[in-house]
């Protein structure tokens, strides 16, 4: 009997995310992964230059994470988290509280990034509802990305994802991100919005807008916006789903700020890419607003797989690794290497701007490219042919590699980027 390869079997029944199946190349079947490497059906290797959407920061098939999860699996596989509790969740809450900003007091579990944002938005709306107030407006940055469920999508400002759903979204007013020279301007836009609307929450990706193309903004500016919101009790929700767990050089991007967000959303690297899990953490003041003799004032929101013990075990092992001497050394190495490479290419005729923050290196090209257009696909294929997985965002090429990437692998990513700059 003829054995079909994975690519053709894939085509039969599968529908992939962010894919126009009528166009483009077949999906690349990956059969194995270790460290920063992925291996396809034919054994060809690829360097995972974006840590599989910035999740596997300690490397694929990390032994410590595998061991923690397999021990957990044998002890307690899963129980629901309503009416029951378990040690992995309790221990994770203790370990996370030790590294989250001081004002964080309670953790609510969900199962992916979008649902962490969804819970944060619902928490904010109910926070006012429980007080007899109706606040119906959210504030968000232009070009932000917060996920694909309806609340998260409402807060997101990238039209490539929202197009068909625009008429069905929550009420959101958008502001531009603050740059060093636009802080006053954005502050006055925000003040006007705060005066003219019943604002419940300000949702933002702190310091780096990932899906927008790893775009950076001013920490001083964001601090000023948080301060304006907090003066009017508007809850500030930091979406650290991309930035969390060391990517910006500190444990959380919020650690670069003086004014701390009221709510922080975590996912992706939380479980080192090993399990879908997310957390919406909040301050005591928010939690207290849900305490009442009236049952319905509680937060009646749940996902079946909340606080899955396997995810919690992976997260606990991940936090151990995050600030281990070995990983700290690699985090510093990557940031230094990125800066050195950025210096080398900044004057290249194809480079419009190059930026580095922690493990993030982003290069805006002089060429204009559609987000999912054919030129972008050519670039994606160009890297794959060289054994490097990078997913350019519009005209931005970026890498955010696993912390465990080797020096040679990182140099290979840089080399292919330089080749692309010389070719496109
Ligand atoms: C900043 C940010 N928020 C939210 C999400 C949504 O997370 P998920 O894809 O797990 O729903 C993403 C995903 O890329 C993200 O980068």
Reconstruct the topology from this structure.
Elements: H1 6-13, E1 30-34, E2 37-40, E3 45-48, H2 51-54, H3 63-75, H4 87-99, E4 104-110, H5 113-129, E5 137-141, H6 150-155, H7 159-162, E6 172-175, H8 183-196, E7 199-204, E8 208-209, E9 215-216, H9 219-231, E10 235-239, E11 263-266, E12 278-283, H10 284-288, H11 309-322, H12 325-345, E13 351-357, E14 360-365, H13 374-385, E15 388-389, E16 396-399, H14 407-423
Parallel strand pairs: 3-15, 5-6, 5-7, 7-10, 10-11
Antiparallel strand pairs: 1-2, 2-3, 4-12, 8-9, 11-12, 13-14, 14-16
Helix pairs in contact: 3-11, 4-11, 8-9
The chain binds pyridoxal-5'-phosphate.
The site of pyridoxal-5'-phosphate has 15 residues, from helix 5.
Provide structural commentary.
The protein is an alpha/beta fold. The chain has two domains: 6-61 and 324-423, Aspartate Aminotransferase, domain 1, CATH 3.90.1150.10; 64-322, Type I PLP-dependent aspartate aminotransferase-like (Major domain) (Aspartate Aminotransferase, domain 2), CATH 3.40.640. Helix content is 38%, strand content 17%. It contains 14 helices and 16 strands. Strands 4-12-11-10-7-5-6 form a seven-stranded mixed beta sheet, sandwiched between helices. The chain binds pyridoxal-5'-phosphate. Pyridoxal-5'-phosphate is lined by residues 53, 112-114, 117, 145-147, 205, 210-211, 239, 241-242, 267.
